[in-house]
Specification:
alpha+beta; five-stranded mixed barrel; binds adenosine-5'-triphosphate
Length: about 425
Amino acid sequence: MQQDDIRDRIFASTLNKDHIGKNASLVGWLEDFRDMGKIGFVTIRDMTGNFQGVVVGEMLSEFREVQRQSIILVKGTIQETRAENFKVEVKIEKMKILSTAVNPLPIDPTGRVKSLMDKRLDCRALDLRNFRISNIFRIRSSVLSLIRKFLYSKMFIEVNTPKIIGSATEGGADLFDFEYFSKKAYLAQSPQLYKEQLTLGLERVFEISPYFRAEPSHTVRHLSEFISVDLEAAFLDYVDIMDIVQELVISTINDLFVNHNEEIKHFENKPAIMVDTIPRTTYQKCLDDLRGLGEKLEFGDDLSDPALKKLGEIYPKFYFITDWPTKLKPFYILEQENKCELSKSFDLQYGYLEIVSGGTREHDPEKLENKLLEKGLNPKSFSDHLKTFEWGMPPHSGCGLGFDRLMMILTNSSNIREVVLYPRDTDRLTP
Ligand code: ATP
């Protein structure tokens, strides 16, 4: 009883009435054992779900020795069950322990005994034995594939740009630096400059990758390492990009709820995030709305955390904010014609949470250089970037979508750490 049986195993979720009367082998971890004296009921879980096993006779004493969460291989006959939660059950005739779990375990992966998030993150691999939690990462994987599918359908190609970079581009005080063969190097905070350059030869690119920010943020929405979905497209402007983002978000959510029902059935925010269209408001309108709520901000002020919280009460779902003041946006964002104090940019918000930031880029090399100077940056540090703008740079636009934040919304999680396997923040560098 070993590898052949494991190879022929039946997965928990596929067990059904057609199997009744057949012999089967199954593997998984022992989640529960209810010992009734003459009969025992075991719950065994694998990656697809759980199944019930029934044990009698000698099998009972064998199961009494097994620590919960140990990995076991069982063989038996599939039979009818009276249990409400299972279609059938397995009358277990043979059992082999493949790996023993210690007792006590540092956390209870069934979730019956609650643990604080920090403790759970310290034991993340075990935490994932909780089906509700591992489901978050199944959804994450599905959403990544849906995003890729959507972007391919819009003629974007996936690219990979360097994460080790040689200069502190974008002016970053937020960069992690380190020694790189006796030179100073940095971890990329975004693919901004590379993805813009790539529109020159590839027109439409996207990248899904980790980025690094050395901001000492202690919030439920910031991490030092996060995944961003970045797009950049030649010949499109920021309104075209907003349209693409709107379609991407709506089609991803719809696809998730229609085709991945099994995974999302535990999450209860479905009605809140299913939308047909995403409303668009302006930065100025937000200031006016906020003024009505007693939050006095002047044109040019950034939307502070308290202001965003209040805005989130007015707009609890997805909404775009457009027409941001130029001075609040990075050097590469283009300003509006005849209204240079306003930029061609947008943010996509979900309540208080910023999900996407995007805009039309400056593609005139001379103007770009002036913008760098205006922002107090040294054009010499950008010479590799600026020279590409002299090779026939197409007008282009793009955006960056915070993937972990999108996952917070899709899984109704209030803390970004819930949707990231091994989060990195100011205090956490392990496991
Ligand atoms: P915020 O103002 O919320 O700190 P930002 O303006 O610095 O965000 P951008 O540099 O525009 O963000 O990055 C694009 C997107 O990446 C953001 O809209 C957000 O969804 C995500 N993002 C940015 N920084 C972080 C972070 N530290 N942790 C998680 N996601 C982030």
